[in-house]
Design brief:
574 residues, 14 helices, 66% helix
């Protein structure tokens, strides 16, 4: 079952939101409890405790005034004004004490009736009952002392000792009642303060606990996201890097059930498709050049129709192969050709050529866009031909093992022809069987030049157009102007000697003397021309073109009518 990434992200977000709601709810509850305890302390418990302390203070002040009045009454000289002043203060302290008690009772009533602040109703109810008793006891104390003063003023004073005993008894009663109230209030206040502190600590513990849980949950979610999202993406990245480096055996396991899994499956399908294309290329690359297979698979080469392009065409053929086959078994012929083609095909592909076909012992190849640059295909074809010629010594060394002979081995040579010009390139064939190839007069001319090597005793002949395009890269010597069979226009042909700057001095001297003789031959200066050709044989006795022109000059001397005015030689053989 597919679980989209959006659902995973939504679930994670929802989990965090639920956690935030829980944290907010618990924090709000703790804050409410803390606020309640603080409100109870600030509105009721602390003011009641302060008022109880005020009543106690006022009662003590009344006692002080009583002591002063008693001292003034028994003084030798009675100060009536001072006595009156102390009496007023005594009465005022009593009134204040009663007012404070009344205020405390009202405050307790307010607390008991409050719906916003939760208080200790049991304690406050007891205090409400005891506060009137304190007030009554204080009023009795007050009345007792005022009665004593009245009697003293009327001349019927009681014993000072009795008065003191009565006042002391009243004071102690008041103090006991006040002490109970104050102790109860202090306990209640302390309890509220302890609960407030406990709520504060609980809130701190809760916040830290929730924060820790959130942190752990966040790490777990991060690990899950990394495993389910990041890790598969990294595997895909490593897979793409592996494919980029050419590893098509890679297959990525989908560990999730989301869009990344779909992407992984698509990636695996893509690699499978590339693997299949590579298999097709490997299979058909043995029959068709891999670049053509790739171009056809990627639709870069048209399946139908043709294009006219300037390209370079190559033909090669073994010398005397038919006679060699007469001395070989069928299996030996196959081994011989397979090894020969293997050695000859490598330089073609190494120099960006397209191996078109094998025809018996012959090879056809071509160079040009889109497989090479527009101006480099002629030079590349020449380089490939030179490398093939160099490999012939290696091939000759293999012949004993290939043919199973140690003696009587045939001399194996190859002839090559290269031309450059306009050809038609495209998929050519029937509806059921096509080949991507090139056709045109240039193709036929390359085949004719390959055959012309037999006429001139050369190994590689190239056309004038090939030389014009590759002259900065190779060394050649002009051999002749010929008219191939089936052609009306003559073609200047050149023997390919080597890469530019890599031809040995004797060969370069041979080239220069031969071209000098060729120029004299074309000007009708036969004797100087022959002297040049003879000089060439002095440099290289087996030089085929020099031998051809010496024989041709002798033929013209014997048959003057055979000489053509334009100096073109007609080839009578393919």
């Amino acid at each position: 079952m597919r679980r989209p990434i959006s659902l995973k992200v939504y679930s994670i977000t929802l989990s965090l939101l639920v956690l935030m709601v829980v944290v907010t709810g618990l924090s709000a509850r703790n804050l409410r409890n803390l606020n309640n305890e603080v409100a109870a302390l600030s509105r009721y418990y602390i003011p009641l405790d302060q008022q109880a302390g005020s009543v106690e203070t006022l009662v003590r002040q009344q006692i002080v005034h009583v002591e002063r009045i008693l001292l003034l009454l028994h003084a030798r000289e009675r100060d009536q004004a001072a006595i009156e002043q102390e009496k007023r203060l005594f009465d005022q302290r009593g009134v204040n004490a009663d007012q404070v008690v009344d205020s405390s009772i009202r405050l307790i009533d307010e607390a008991l009736l409050s719906t916003h602040v939760s208080v200790d109703r049991v304690v406050l109810s007891l205090l409400k009952q005891e506060l009137p008793d304190v007030q009554t006891a204080r009023q009795n104390f007050h009345a007792t002392f005022r009665q004593f003063l009245t009697e003293a003023e009327d001349g019927n004073p009681r014993s000072l000792k009795l008065v003191r005993q009565a006042l002391e008894s009243g004071k102690e009663g008041i103090n006991r009642q006040l002490e109970r109230i104050i102790v109860a209030l202090e306990r209640t206040t302390q309890g509220a303060a302890d609960r407030a502190e406990a709520e504060e600590k609980r809130a701190i513990r809760l916040n830290w606990g929730i924060t820790s849980i959130a942190g752990i949950l966040g790490l777990l979610l991060a690990a899950i996201i990394t495993r389910n999202l990041v890790a598969p993406v990294r595997r895909l990245l490593r897979g793409t890097e592996a494919v980029e480096q050419g590893d098509l055996s890679i297959r990525i396991h989908a560990s999730s059930a989301d869009e990344i899994a779909t992407l992984t499956e698509s990636f695996n399908n893509m690699v499978a498709g590339l693997r299949e294309k590579e298999r097709i290329k490997d299979t058909f690359g043995k029959y068709v050049d891999p670049r053509i297979v790739t171009g056809l698979l990627e639709n870069r080469l048209a399946f139908s129709g043709g294009e006219k392009k300037t390209m370079t065409v190559f033909f090669s053929d073994l010398v005397g192969f038919t006679q060699m086959c007469e001395n070989l078994t069928p299996d030996g012929v196959v081994r011989f050709l397979n090894q020969y083609f293997t050695l000859m095909a490598e330089p073609i592909r190494d120099h960006s050529g397209i191996l078109d076909k094998f025809m018996g012992d012959a090879i056809m190849a071509y160079w040009g866009p889109p497989f090479t640059g527009d101006q480099e295909h002629a030079a590349l074809a020449c380089f490939a031909a030179l490398d093939q010629m160099a490999r012939m010594e290696r091939f000759r060394a293999m012949l004993p093992d290939i043919m199973g002979l140690r003696k009587g081995l045939p001399r194996v040579d190859v002839r090559m022809g290269i031309t450059t010009g306009d050809v038609t390139v495209g998929n050519i064939g029937s509806d059921s069987a096509k080949g991507f190839t090139v056709i045109g007069d240039i193709v036929n001319l390359a085949s004719r030049l390959e055959g012309a090597n037999k006429e001139y005793g050369t190994g590689i002949l190239i056309s004038e157009d090939t030389w014009s395009m590759a002259k900065d890269a190779v060394e050649v010597r002009e051999v002749d102007s010929i008219r191939a069979i089936g052609k009306s226009e003559p073609v200047r042909v050149f023997e390919l000697l080597g890469r530019k700057g890599q031809v040995d001095p004797p060969t370069m001297e041979l080239k220069n003397r031969f071209e000098e003789g060729l120029a004299q031959y074309r000007n009708g200066e036969w004797d100087p021309a022959e002297a040049c050709f003879q000089a060439c044989l002095g440099i290289k006795p087996e030089d085929g073109p020099s031998q051809v022109f010496i024989a041709r000059l002798q033929h013209f001397r014997d048959h003057p009518q055979a000489r053509r005015a334009d100096g073109v030689w007609d080839l009578n053989k393919k």
